[in-house]
Amino acid sequence: MAKRKSRTLEKAETAAVLSDSDRRTLQALHELAQKVVQSAAVGRSPYLDIPSRTLSNVRFNKTKRIIEMGSGTSRRELFNLSQAKAYMQTLLVASGAKRLIEQGKTTSLRGLYYMLKHTIKGTSEETFDDQSESDSMIEDVEVLLNALREELHLYAKTQGVMVGPITIIDNGDEIDCSRMGSGGYGIPSIVEPDRIQFRDCKAEFVLHVEKDTVWQRFNEDKFWLKHNCILTHGGGQPPRGVRRLLYRLHYELGLPIYCVLDNDPWGYYIYSVIKQGSINLAYESKRMAIPEVRFLGLRSSDFERCGLSPSVQIKLSEQDIKRAKQIANYPWFANKRAWQKEIELMLKNGFKLEVEALISKDISYVTEEYVPSRLAEGDFLD
Amino acid sequence: MAKRKSRTLEKAETAAVLSDSDRRTLQALHELAQKVVQSAAVGRSPYLDIPSRTLSNVRFNKTKRIIEMGSGTSRRELFNLSQAKAYMQTLLVASGAKRLIEQGKTTSLRGLYYMLKHTIKGTSEETFDDQSESDSMIEDVEVLLNALREELHLYAKTQGVMVGPITIIDNGDEIDCSRMGSGGYGIPSIVEPDRIQFRDCKAEFVLHVEKDTVWQRFNEDKFWLKHNCILTHGGGQPPRGVRRLLYRLHYELGLPIYCVLDNDPWGYYIYSVIKQGSINLAYESKRMAIPEVRFLGLRSSDFERCGLSPSVQIKLSEQDIKRAKQIANYPWFANKRAWQKEIELMLKNGFKLEVEALISKDISYVTEEYVPSRLAEGDFLD
To answer: Which residue of B184, B195, B213 is in closest CB contact with A186?
Structure first.
């Protein structure tokens, strides 16, 4: 009882610090609930028209140059035996998000799963059998409300870091990213404007590298200081927080974004997701994809151009070859001659190259020669 | 040529900023090379006596309570057809470490592999066929010189974060870990005293949690502020930098370390490595293992004690059961009644519990009730 009371109190307290975005999301959640009440009032079966997250409802918008969802929706009804459970799950996730926002708290996808999982009263049925069920419902609620999951107060794994001449206000703390030593500022999962603000940005561009081990080389060589840029990595495929931060740095501060990724299908794919969005989560592209991002390297021509030793070649696997051909056929690469040549040359080479391969030239070749000359020549893929 | 010159210059510059640890390591590398010269001078076959990293040479030191290496060594000779390549590789890795230290630079294991990989002149033989070969030689050089790989200027992946009332000097930058917002300070891979110093520590203990998603809950609830502690995570099995930092916080600042890990064999194993060291890398225990660390939870008894719903149980797999029995037989757990009871009860329960399962009680149950009451009662496993 005491517990319940304290939560109510907290609710009252945190209600005062709702951000504009919180208020928008709560409003959308209220409207969702209102529709159920209205249906019930007139004796109609409550339903939800959920934008379809199927592949057939995903298209590449050539004007905006991002992957986006089409207008297809599918109806989910309460009084339909095959849809009733999914209907209940959708509203359960929505109610969980409401609780989080009102409490001013955030949690992980797994956290929400545990928060909402229980045996339905009077049955032996679980609300969710495993996390994949609640994850899928979270995506439905995102498209239903046109809200990023971060706006529903849900966070993902963090695995990116940044340094550079910019000050970040993170929940009121002022963090000077030019004084972060060898560790750097851990990029949080939720970087929405109500939590993270930018101050005193002196950087002229952002250099995003694929891996933390490469980032450490750039940081140790103080690349960001010499070239006046922000230096980030995303631990491979960058998590949502990193993509959203790059998006905000680009669109709010006008910083060009350059990516240093491996010369392999995985590097191409990472670039594709940063640039055009992801096919599976097409609805988030409009707040994450950065069509103007540029691919600085590594390139298939670098083996010859940089005079690398055959020792650093890694033979393409069957899987690599298959993936490279798929990527070459992506609509956003299909019409780009430079990308077609790039992928063709990799296939012709028969090998891939990691950024670390440049260490065979010199430990700081990548920071002192490779990237500076690519930048100076404006030599990158679009 | 210009390149070569600039490197020499740099060498001269950085020679001035060698740390004491760098000097010690360089001295050991010189002695290693001297022995080769001496053997050659007297016409004897050069050899190395390398402490054996085999399982049979690993033992649990009951007094020190850490896993350590025995005194077994194995000889590696140049003029022995089956050992010549390994001999060459060992010295190659040593020369690579020397180059890194003299240049004042660091690199990843993969970076060193690329740095040293080449086709041996006049043959079609590669110095290393793949990275596992150079990794293994790095471990040999570590035991040979009694130096951590960080002292050889090699870094690992980073994946831990910290916040709390302590200021860190990281390569000259002053970082106030109590003003790190939601992101936190990314714990670097190399946290040796010549790079990272502690200032103004007001914390009374360290709370180490397993996963970043749980860490985010503790940080959002400002647990570290309310309980005056340092809050860290290691992204699962903590990487070397995190373990070494915990070690330094414990032994240099006298802070007790408490771990909040899952109630499953993986959680037990993480605890075991932090506490006693890892079996595979036994030689590093003396500078990483913290026998005084304490296991705060989750516990097998928590299902009943905390009144959790059966919905949060995760059935033990065959593999879990096998691992649990192995861990119960570790010499450092075998004689501890509390640990034997803990593991027995998990096996009897037939299920495991994640820390996130506590969210089913309340989103902040873990930070507001579970951990505070365990701390207040002094209820933990040793």
So the answer is: B184
- Residue B229 in contact with residue B236, Cβ under 8 Å? no
pTM: 0.89
Using alpha carbons, select from A311, A317, A302, A219 the residue that is nearest to residue A262: A302
How far apart are alpha carbons B245 and B251 in whole angstroms? Answer: 10
Top residue of A9, A101, A359 to mutate, by most chain B CBs within 10 Å, is A359
Closest CA to B182 of B210, B231, B215, B220: B220
In this predicted model, what pLDDT tens digit does every residue of B210-260 receive, in sequence order? 999 999 999 999 999 999 999 999 999 999 999 999 999 999 999 999 999
Tokens at A314, concatenated: 């890694």
**Is A117 close to B360, i.e. CB distance below 8 A?**
yes
User: What's the rounded Cα separation, in Å, for the pair A279 and A67?
Assistant: 7
Phi-psi region of A213 (alpha: psi -120 to 50; beta: other; left: phi over 0): alpha
Check CB contact under 8 Å for A182 and B188: yes
Of the residues B135, B213, B224, B308, the best mutation for testing chain A's interface (the one with the most A CB atoms within 10 Å of its CB) is: B213
Vertex B378 angle, CA B375 and B379, to 5°? 95
What is this model's ipTM?
0.86
Number of helices followed by number of strands (H, E) in chain B: 15, 17
**Interface test mutation site (partner B, options A127, A163, A216, max chain B beta carbons within 10 A):** A216
Residue type, B211: K
Which member of A47, A87, A114, A365 is catalytic?
A114
φ, ψ for residue B349 (rounded to 5)? -55, -40
Give the model's pLDDT for residue A53.
Answer: 87
Which residues of B are less than 8 Å from A171 in CB distance? Answer: 181-182
- Please give, rounded to a whole number of angstroms, the shortest distance from the CA of B43 to a CA of chain A: 34
Distance from CA of A263 to the nearest CA of B (A): 15
For chain A (382 residues), the mean pLDDT of every run of 10, in chain order, is 41 63 95 92 92 90 93 92 95 96 94 94 92 95 94 90 96 94 91 94 98 94 97 94 97 98 97 93 92 96 95 96 96 93 97 96 96 96 92
Yes or no, beta carbons of B117 and A311 under 8 Å apart: yes
| CA atoms of A181 and A200, how far apart (whole Å) | 19
- Whether cis (ω within 30° of 0) applies to the bond prior to A298 is yes
Strand ranges (DSSP E) for chain B? 47-51, 58-61, 66-69, 73-77, 107-108, 154-155, 160-163, 167-170, 173-176, 185-187, 196-199, 205-209, 229-233, 257-260, 294-297, 314-315, 351-352
Q: How far is CA B157 from CA A236, A326, B154, B188, B371, in A?
A: 12, 31, 10, 9, 29
Give dist(CA B180, CA B164) in Å, integer.
9
- B114 part of the active site: yes
When CB atoms are compared, the residue of B107, B117, B356 closest to A111 is B356
Tell me: the pLDDT tens digits for B27-40?
A: 999 999 999 999 98
For residue A377, give the 3-state DSSP assignment: helix
Report the pLDDT averaged over residues B64-70: 93
Domains of chain B listed by start with CATH number: 2-45+80-155 (1.10.10.10), 160-377 (3.40.1360.10)
